[in-house]
Write a structure and sequence with these properties.
The protein is mainly beta. The chain contains one helix and seven strands. Helix 1 links the parallel strand 2 and strand 3.
Length: about 120
């Protein structure tokens, strides 16, 4: 199975920040695995879990098997941040308040760099 491609994510509504180098996970296998059973996440990296359409249910995540906290940012198909949360390790589940197509999982220190309503842009590396 091919590895996910890398992209950068830029918040268009925030002052310049360190670019996020993200793995674009658009297959069932990579969405299912996510960051389960990994030991840590680097401050400038993360995963983007990609769903086919905007949905609250399909954009829900679990933290079972994840031994560290994560910043989770939900983005809809219009590239707008619709929700965010500090996801605690081993928590059963989190779902966005609004439908989302993309679930960005990044280092918890990066949570404050995104606000609900921000526009984001994906860039190929």
């Amino acid at each position: 199975m091919p590895m996910p491609r890398n992209i950068h994510i830029r918040n268009l509504d925030a002052a310049s920040q360190t670019l996020l180098q993200i793995k674009y996970c658009d297959t069932f296998f990579y969405r299912l695995r996510g960051l389960t059973f990994t030991s840590e996440i680097a401050p400038a990296s993360g995963l983007l879990l990609v769903q086919k359409t905007d949905s609250r249910l399909d954009a829900a995540i679990h933290m079972l098997g994840v031994s560290y906290d994560l910043a989770v940012i939900w983005i809809n198909s219009s590239m707008k941040v619709v929700d965010k949360v500090l996801a605690k390790s081993w928590h059963l589940s989190y779902a966005p308040k609004e439908p989302a197509q993309y679930i960005l999982e990044i280092h918890p220190d990066r949570l404050a760099e995104f606000e609900i309503g921000d526009k984001v842009q994906f860039e190929d590396v």
